[in-house]
Amino acid sequence: MEEAKIGVLMLDTTFPRLLGDIGNGLTFPFPVKYALVKGATVDRVVKEGDPSLLQPFVEGALTLQRQGVQAITTSCGFLSLFQKEIEQKVNVLFYASSLIQIPFVYRLVGKRGQIGVMTASKASLSSQHFKALGIHQIPMAVEGMDNMPEFTRCFVEGQEDMDADKVEKEVVGKAKTLVDNHPDVRAIVLECTNMSPYKERIKKAVNLPVFDIVSLTEFVYAALP
User: How far apart are CA 49 and CA 78, in angstroms?
Assistant: First the structure.
């Protein structure tokens, strides 16, 4: 059996991880090793950007490295804040957030128009999350799920049950809103890893390329020896 080459640092959550979510091991056609970062709740990571969580994430990354993975990522795009610190502590590939691929996507579309960013919380996604990756000068249009009741109930408030159909309608609806409000958006990057199960529906709804943590992880995996 193939050893896991990809490691994922997981937030401390209880909501369902559907097929297509990075937290569901069946999402990938290759093995993935997970490390739970205890205490890394949605409130502390998304709403507060709690800097005291850096050390637990560093320790989790070092643990995954010792276990033999060749690349490490996380289950939340808001962890872009920790990109620089963690990448300097490990000797394997590290990408904290799906947002890290925005410069690549912007180049793919000819550096024209804007890159659409869909996030769990527009209110919480600040310029600091982009500056931490050195991408804050790229033209971006951001759309959040802040006022979407089922998405918020499940992924922000942390309820253990969810209506997947409602979440899908909310996510796809927000993608349409993003493109309607910003017709110069030429591609979309999903900050939120919990949106990945709906990626195909989003692509069909807006007729644009959609990049997420799953496509990025498959890209990285393909490069590993």
Answer: 8
CATH number at residue 80: 3.40.50.1860
The pLDDT tens digits of the residues spanning 30-84 come to: 999 999 999 999 999 999 999 999 999 999 999 999 999 999 999 999 999 999 9
Question: Does residue 97 contact residue 74 with C-beta atoms inside 8 Å?
Answer: yes
Claim to verify: residue 142 and residue 196 sit in the same structural domain: yes
**Could you tell me if 192 and 77 are in contact, meaning their C-beta atoms sit under 8 angstroms apart?**
yes
Nearest to residue 217, comparing CAs of 68, 81, 43, 93? 93
- Pairwise CA distance, residues 130 & 102, whole Å: 10
Quick: pLDDT tens for 134-186: 999 999 999 999 999 999 999 988 888 899 999 999 999 999 999 999 999 99
Instruction: Indicate the pairing of strand 93-94 with strand 114-119.
Output: unpaired
Q: Which segments of 110-207 are extended strands (E)?
A: 114-119, 140-144, 185-190
Q: Burial, 71: exposed, middle or buried (Cβ in 10 Å; 0-12, 13-18, 19+)?
A: buried
Residue located via tokens 């997947």: 164
Judge if pTM exceeds 0.90.
Answer: yes
The four Cα atoms 108, 72, 35, 215 give a dihedral, to 10 degrees, of 20
State whether 69 and 130 are in the same domain. Answer: no
Count of domains in the chain? Answer: 2
Range of the domain at 203: 98-211
The answer to whether residue 153 is domain-embedded is yes
